[in-house]
What we know:
It is built from eight helices and 14 strands. It folds into two domains: 3-145, 2-Layer Sandwich (VC0802-like); 157-330, Vaccinia Virus protein VP39 (Rossmann fold), CATH 3.40.50.150. The relative contact order is 0.11. By secondary structure, the protein is α/β, with parallel strands linked by helices. It has helices spanning 14-27, 52-55, 76-82, 105-112, 173-181, 200-207, 219-231, 271-284, and strands spanning 3-9, 33-38, 41-46, 61-71, 93-98, 129-135, 139-145, 190-193, 211-216, 237-240, 253-256, 291-296, 307-318, 321-330. The site of S-adenosylmethionine has 23 residues, from α6 and β9.
Amino acid sequence: MKHQYLLELGGENTELGKIEALELLSTENYEPKLVLKESSIITIEVSNIIKPRIIRRLGMTKRISKIFHEDKETNLEKIVKKISFLDIGQKTFAIRQICNKVMSEKKIAHILGEKIPKYNKTNLDNPEIKVLYYTGTKTIISIWDRKLETYYKKCLKYHIKNRPFFSPISIHPRIARSMINLANCSINDTIIDPFCGTGGMLIEASDMKIDSIGIDIMEKMVDYSIGNLKHFGLKSKVLEGDVAEIINCKFKAIVTDPPYGISTTTKGEGVDKLMKRCMNIFSENMKQGDRLVMALSKPELIENQNYKKIYQFQWYIHKSLTRYILVMERN
Ligand SMILES: C[S@@+](CC[C@H](N)C(=O)[O-])C[C@H]1O[C@@H](n2cnc3c(N)ncnc32)[C@H](O)[C@@H]1O
């Protein structure tokens, strides 16, 4: 049986949010199909009900809800005549309009409320269920409940301002999480970050129960990673050494944010030279089809015929810094 979900994506980069969700669900064997993409929402069809453990891996989806009804009709009164009662157990609920505001929420609640049994109480501040109403090229009525909690807001608990050890180079938790979700890894797989800095990737991997190994050339950074992981009660192996240390490690994917020349140190090696060297080391230690996910400011520095580029996303940081996220596969 097929199931349909509506995903409201974070405004930072909706393309990255869409691909993060599709890639993660495909890694976890839900056979996802994109049905609709409109402004900041997507709808998808999957082969099974998505487990809460998988939903909480999503870093770039603000909210996910299960589609109850969709219609080409835009007149809500006509739609309501066609749909059955909404069975939400004994739970409290609120009715909300998302994205395009086409009529007052009060009016929507009045019309849609007819389809909710009288014994269900409304709770506008902290409902157990939200009945979401979307109108675009289609009208969608979708049900969110508390089990469907993504990590869009929650991963901010690992934000650099909440870490005991931080540095301006630390990667944003949402980017780190989405990068790991693009690496084709499930629970018990291992990712490696050979430029781990303060441990941003390791924190997100461990939170998602994915094993991880971090390497950094600077002793201070290794201590920072270990200190941050310990602070949040998370676990990872962290080694001090050069990127070449990966030859002694077993992993399924590389997810990393190498030095890009601003406030980071490479112990004297030029970034161009380091990037060429690391791309060769990586390819010698990856199997065909393994993924390499990198955040970069100059994607041209890593051109290498041993990899096939699968995706490239652009992430605007500030006026003088745009970062690119590249997803590659070993040929
Ligand atoms: C951009 S930072 C990584 C930031 C990290 N993602 C975080 O969340 O803090 C790059 C890191 O690469 C490390 N590094 C530089 N050259 C290296 C090398 N040859 N081998 C391993 N690590 C190196 C630097 O010490 C720095 O911590």
